[in-house]
Amino acid sequence: MFAYVVKRLISGVLVVALVSMAIFLLFWYGPSSPAQPVCDRETSNRCTPARLEVYEKTLGYDNPVYEEYGKFVKGVFVGRTITIASSEYQCSAPCLGVSFRTKQPVKEELVSRMPATFSVAIGGAFLYLLFGVPIGVAAARRRGTVTDKALVSSFLFISSIPYYLFALLTWLYLTLTFPVPLFSDTGYFSFFSEGPWKWFSGLFLAWVALGIFGCTQYTRFTRGAMVEALSEDYIRTAKAKGLPARTIVYKHGLRAALVPVVTIFGIDFGTLLAGTIFTERIFEIQGIGWWSLQAVQGRDLPVVQATALFSAVVLIISNLLVDVVYSVLDPRVRLS
Amino acid sequence: MTSVPMTQSSAAAAAEADGPFLQVEDLKVTFPTEDGPVTAVQGLSYSVAKGKTLGIVGESGSGKSVSSMAVMGLHDTKSAQISGSIRVGGTEVVGLSESRMRGLRGNSMAMIFQDALAALHPFYKIGGQLEEAYLVHHSGASKRDARRKAIEMLDRVGIPQPDRRVDDFPHQFSGGMRQRAMIAMGLINDPSLLIADEPTTALDVTVQAQILDLLQDLQREFNSAVIIITHDLGVIAEMADDVLVMYAGRCVEYGTAKQILTTPEMPYTWGLLSSIPDLSASTDARLIPIPGNPPSLLRPPSGCSFHPRCVHSDKVPGDLCVTELPELLPASSGTAHLKRCHLADPIAVYQDEVLPEIAPDLVEETR
Amino acid sequence: MTQDPNARAEIEPTEVGANAAETGERQLRQPDADHDVTNDHELLPEDLDFATLVEHGHTASELDPDAPAVLTVDNLKMYFPVRSSGLVRRTIGHVQAVDGISFEVPKGGSLGLVGESGCGKSTTGRLITRLYKPTGGSMMFEGNDLAKLSNKEMKPLRRDVQMIFQDPYTSLNPRHTVGTIVGAPLEVHKIVPKDKVLPRVQELLEIVGLNPEHYNRYPNEFSGGQRQRIGIARALTLNPKVLVADEPVSALDVSIQAQVVNLLQDIQSEFDVAFLFIAHDLAIVRHFCPEIAVMYLGKIVEIGDRETIYGKPHHPYTQALLSAVPDVKQAAVGGRRERIRLEGDVPSPINPPSGCRFRTRCQFAQEICAKVEPPLLQIGKRHKVACHFAGELGAHPATPVTTQLLGVDDQGSPVPGATPTNTQLTIPGYEKTWYDLTTKQTTGA
């Protein structure tokens, strides 16, 4: 197990290195010079070829690509000084660059935005598991009945709406058409400096949107896994032992059905942690998702690079966690 | 639900004096399907006394498992319609409430299944699964008692180092050991009725022999009534006192093992006997299959359900086999022997036509 | 055979090997509006009587002692590496699934391979069809050593060695029609022009007793027995010379097993195919195979003709195996049959016992069994056994019978100066002379 985790971490580091290289190369060989956006911004869109050359030179874009990538990697480990035109910016390790827009070190901004994104992700995931799994179990126990069919088809309808549309409609109806008192002022407020209530009320609608949408999906996953588990031979054995229905369904059925659900959830939750772009944008939450969206719009290359790297890291870790949890849940699985 | 083993066994003893421990009468099991109701079992009657073994033989879809699951009350009451009478130790279980049924299940009657790997929960330790079976019927017992009982049962069924293996998961056991653990779990509450559904089908012959030995030893020890469901006539011959042959949901022949396997009177039983080669038979014996396939229960054949595959229906006058379902009537070999067939003199057909082809050596012996 | 064209039409069903009588295929030829199409192939001619059915049932296959070998397997080995867990996965051992087995499959004949799960019988089948590449040994087939050929060189030979699988439910692709499944080998090997594929497929379906009109149906529309027929048709597509049948009937209902066994016997006599018949059901093997090899933990422990193996087996394992089979005839007597009880489980093939692999469960085992591996010794005209104490049930000798040949004493320690006399212990076939257990001399017929 330990050896397995070490092995996976090593391969994870390799993947992160490859992703960082790929992102670096994509920007380097992009359609316009990587210095173009910063030049445009600094000169208020009067970037002449001569000015561009200055930016390229200070940013090192006239050097060979491997040399600059080397500097980037070195910055991650020991920090570096970044020169944009005439100004110099200190960037301490682990340095992911300096935002072209705010001139702030990307890492610091990333860290400062994590609480918002994590709050949205954890709250939303909590809601959809809280409702999705039990509803799924209930539907599986009543499979084939009218209740089950109604539930499955209505949930299928909801989850076939594109999520951005669903979130937008939620926001529209619950803040403008029928404003929910206390919760219609959405946004992220710090749990510590502005108090738990403010934090809670700002995020509530985002959680509801994420929760309902995720609930429809997790109900279906759970129901599917549960129907399969309940048709297994060991359920018949449990019944033949004279166990009460509750024990059969939860201890024997759900325990087995949870394995695939946990697998999906691990990947899903990793994606959420890496940034919920639509949710954050629609509910005006200053998290990683919205930030990366702004970075793409503003061609803020260091930020785009950093958020892409960040999602890679989060996904690799959540994948690893899923595999470890899997081996804990299913004693037949041996990690090697 | 509290059940005290003492009263259980005394109730069972009372029932024993009255007659067989398990008495099934006119059992009918119907499942609704999208294509209409399917009657998986009908008109089935049999009984098993304590200390006796009934073998149920039939092909897939013959209703042999469905009927036993009805005895255990394992069918979903919402979908399966069960009528007739099933008396277990004097208690009528058709229509019995789920909570009272649960008190009997795994307690005074237990079932062991074919594929022990699938029938044991893959995520729980063998010991835990045995303890659970004990605790559910012994609400006063402590976890420690249950564990002691589990180890004792594993030891009893011949698992080496039971105190260590009790903490293994099912996948860490070999096939034979898993089946032993399954039997231990079935017998942990000293049931008076044990139903074994194809208990040795997936096992190697030497392991099969060990498991059959074990079942017989345990039956002697606990004096339980045993039902063995199998398609292996060899197993039936060595284990069963009585044999019930099922075809398309009905009993087609019923009698002692000796009657059924030496003087069978129903062409389907002949077909079963002629389609298995024998280890010691003459090499001149022919392997004669039953033609065709088992019928669909959705649209069962008219008359005798076996008539489309029967090669002896030409010996019955008219098209009686096609139009009329033969009744289950006493056979010529004895009153305890019942058969469902229109043939007038089945013994003669068997002796003169079938036996010379499938066991020429036996014919010489009898002459 | 008659040359009268009218008579020919009548006997044709049996001629092509179809068990027409069992399935009632021929009846379908007559248009019949009342027939439910989906169940057509399940119905029977009403005039089918017992006598006709009997004609289609076969007696046990007979041995042709003079048949030349079509496949000669010599010292075949298959070791699967076992890797360690941990950062660097080193090979820490081998599963000796098949460890030096030799046998011959006679042309148009059948060799049965029996043994318990894990004995290596299925691996042997997969080696012969080259689903695995053997670790060592040779498999001579028509002048080619199948064990040495590369996958590319193997390709043209694959058509000659085909396989029938156990599970008719998983071995057929559910998304392909029966026609595609059966015809696929023809297209892969580009043997017949495209427009000839369908007629050949229909011919094959007819041979195995299915309605040739059903070529465009999917496997799920057929019952288990019929699917196994489809599997057999697929194996026959390329006119193979050797068929490896790995538990071909064990997944089927009892009544259907006999249909399939009869079909295989029909096919064997019709097309002169040799069978390597792998099964754990000793009675079926006895019926189908005039010669049988018994395997235990990767080795052949006894091989011989039917009468010898089932009548007077000399290896304690064969004896135990046979005594464990429940017997229908026991019904006349009542109770259980006497049997030899084997204690414990089969040991791990990763680290098999030294000397004789069966010794850990054998009641006759002595010191020599742990020290020296018993050679597979020919002790009769068509009988070889690998046991130091080989003998009929109840007549196992008190001292090892192999000491002279191996140059060892009764405890298995080498005798100084003694020269092992038998140098041909592992030839695949049978010698004209053999080692007589009572005289301890080489004798001949």
Automatic annotation (TrEMBL), chain A:
Residues 114-326 form the ABC transmembrane type-1 domain. It is a multi-pass membrane protein. One of its GO terms (cellular component) is plasma membrane. It is found in: Cell membrane. It comes from the Bacteria. The keyword Transport applies. Keywords: Cell membrane, Membrane, Transmembrane, Transmembrane helix, Transport. The chain crosses the membrane at residues 9-29, 116-139, 151-176, 196-216, 256-278, 308-329. Gene3D superfamilies: MetI-like (1.10.3720.10). InterPro entries: BPD_transp_1_N, MetI-like, MetI-like_sf. Pfam families: BPD_transp_1 (PF00528), BPD_transp_1_N (PF19300). GO terms for biological process: transmembrane transport. Belongs to the binding-protein-dependent transport system permease family. This is Peptide/nickel transport system permease protein.
From TrEMBL, chain C:
GO terms for molecular function: ATP binding; ATP hydrolysis activity. Pfam families: ABC_tran, oligo_HPY. Keywords: ATP-binding, Nucleotide-binding, Transport. Residues 23-39 have a biased composition (Basic and acidic residues). InterPro entries: AAA+_ATPase (IPR003593), ABC_transp_ATP-bind (IPR050319), ABC_transporter-like_ATP-bd (IPR003439), ABC_transporter-like_CS (IPR017871), Oligopep_ABC_C (IPR013563), P-loop_NTPase (IPR027417). Residues 1-39 are annotated as: Disordered. It comes from the Bacteria. Residues 82-322 form the ABC transporter domain. CDD domains: ABC_NikE_OppD_transporters. SUPFAM superfamilies: P-loop containing nucleoside triphosphate hydrolases. GO terms for biological process: peptide transport; transmembrane transport. This is Peptide/nickel transport system ATP-binding protein/oligopeptide transport system ATP-binding protein. It comes from Nocardioides cavernae. The lineage of its organism: Bacteria, Bacillati, Actinomycetota, Actinomycetes, Propionibacteriales.
